[in-house]
Amino acid sequence: MDLDLVISGGTVATASDVFSCDIGIKDGIIVQLGHDLGPAKETIDATGHYVLPGGIDSHVHIAQPSGEGIVMADGFESGTRSALFGGNTTILPFCLQEKGQSLREALTGYHALAEGNCYTDISFHLIVSDPTAAVLGQELPALVADGYTSFKVFMTYEGLRLNDAEILATMDVARRTGALVMVHCENEDAIAYLIGRHEAEGEVRPRAHATTRPVAAEREATHRAMSLAEIVDVPVVIVHVSNGAAIEEIRRARARGRKVVSETCPQYLMLTAADLEGMDWEGAKFVCSPPPRDETEQEACWNGLEEGTFDLFSSDHCPFRYDDPEGKLNPKGAANFRHIPNGIPGVETRLPILFSEGVVKGRIDLSRFVALTATNQAKVYGLYPQKGTIAIGADADIAIWDPTAQRTIRHAELHDGADYSPYEGLAVTGWPTTVILGGKVMIREGALVGAKGDGAYRSRGLSSLIAARG
Ligand code: DUC
Ligand code: ZN
Ligand code: ZN
């Protein structure tokens, strides 16, 4: 049997091991691990490089309706292209149910936008904003059976937030179906109160985004989300955790025996609330929720990555252009922070930032990097063992990294549809140079050789990380 592709001479890393090994690929699948493989139609020499599972980014927003007159900067073509250049082979965007809309209808729209346009594989989480009896009783269970095995609920944003009773009812569907509920934890009433107070004092600059969404609002909601999950007796994912107090709540819940998956993101390691104070409204570039905090909270998030509290490191890529009337500087957003669209780009820089700041600087080892960015992502969201690791029988989704590459992050060299990067000017060591999706070389030595449409929608099973915990 001739192999289609052999990757030779590299250092392979999985979530548990780092070893020297060649990889043989046939029909898109890893079929051999060893030495002196072949013959093969093509051999890629990976000497001096790391050979890692393609990144899986389970927290990405693409083409999501974001309010009147506001347009997200990425569709599926630019969003997945950017993800690919950042070493990812699968991303999980959200499908937002708008009020009054059925989830099926929402999904039909997202699939139509994605079909034939993706450079990576994709799969969808559902955002439940209108948990009617029909949605809870019929739609959601049928969708879980069809492979949409995770949904997100919001505790904040008027029009999107669910009250506690609605969250309990949604969690109950998860308990019955085995699906996973992800929760955005911020106390909406507290935030609304603080926004009112800031406006009354005439404080409407971007910096107010941080002071109206304090740590206590996130900590309280994190505790409440896990308590609601405890009442229903269901696992829960706490997404985009930004601070030490919320981390402490997660540790306490786990000590009580609760099954909690937790995620943090690059913005909580690299940005602070001071970034929101930029001149001429530039702080709008850093408006995301929860907001960036301070150095102490950054350190707490690093600690959570190092000692194992965090299972997932995701981008929360939620891109809006800055200098654009449909983006951050929309007419209302340019006058008042509360109208600045919430979210920042980062799908392409997630892996290089964690590699450089985490692995190169000795905070986490290479296997922990792989676990946080690929293996756990696949396990939590029902893609494992087909994705997220390098093993016989797994999809040949592989990123070959030059661990010594020196780059300075410049938006001009990135591939998303935004017009800035929050990490502009950050010097990093290490970058993925060749990216392979299902055995097909998509990026070769930094150059795009794959085509849009090479990525496909992937239906998912239930979470194996949760199942493994009993
Ligand atoms: N929550 C997200 O997960 N992403 C962007 C904005 C938000 O509130
Ligand atoms: Zn969120
Ligand atoms: Zn998000």
UniProtKB/TrEMBL annotation:
PTM description: Carbamylation allows a single lysine to coordinate two divalent metal cations.
A GO term, aspect molecular function: metal ion binding
Domain Amidohydrolase-related: 50-441
GO cellular component, one term: cytosol
Keywords: Hydrolase, Metal-binding
Modified positions (N6-carboxylysine) in chain numbering: 152
Source organism superkingdom: Bacteria
SUPFAM superfamilies, per database record: Composite domain of metallo-dependent hydrolases (SSF51338), Metallo-dependent hydrolases (SSF51556)
Cofactor: Zn(2+)
Coiled coil: none
Pfam family, one: Amidohydro_1
Sequence similarity: Belongs to the metallo-dependent hydrolases superfamily. Hydantoinase/dihydropyrimidinase family.
Name under which the protein is recorded: Dihydropyrimidinase
